[in-house]
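Subgroup meeting minutes
Present: P.N., E.W., G.H.
Scribe: E.W.

1. P.N. recapped why we're keeping a running log of single-chain structure predictions: easier to compare across weeks, and new members can see raw inputs and outputs side by side.
2. G.H. added today's entry (153 aa).
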Amino acid sequence: MKQAVPQEELESYVGKHLGYSEWMVVDQDRVNAFADVTLDHQYIHVDPEAAAQTPFGGTIAHGFLTLSLLVHLTADLTVAPERTLMSINYGFDKVRFLAPVRVGKAIRAGVEVREIAAKGPGRYLMTYGVTVEIEGEDKPALVADWLGMAVTG
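Output recorded in log:
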């Protein structure tokens, strides 16, 4: 759940790291289900035998699967103005896929508040810096600047 913050205190959150999610294992069933939904059945995602012959050494998650898991991973790691009626995914200013997530590995997200901008009565554009880490690896899976619009009542 988002942390409700009095509107006059929102600016004090800019630059703050809000923490990390729990670790989540990315398994082959999830990758296969994502491949089915997106119709992206490239062998590096769904064919463990063929993928074992690549530099990855096995199947890897789709980059867009990792990106889509941000909704789950960051659910408890954001702030919102008090009396927020809804938060709307506003898009991304930047997304970079830096390292593959090998099937069977665990990932987690870290979140930092980058910017909070009032966009008119009852509307706040929240920009979060999100990093998805891979357990036991130095290089993150992805980094992104994610935008959300908070609408208050």
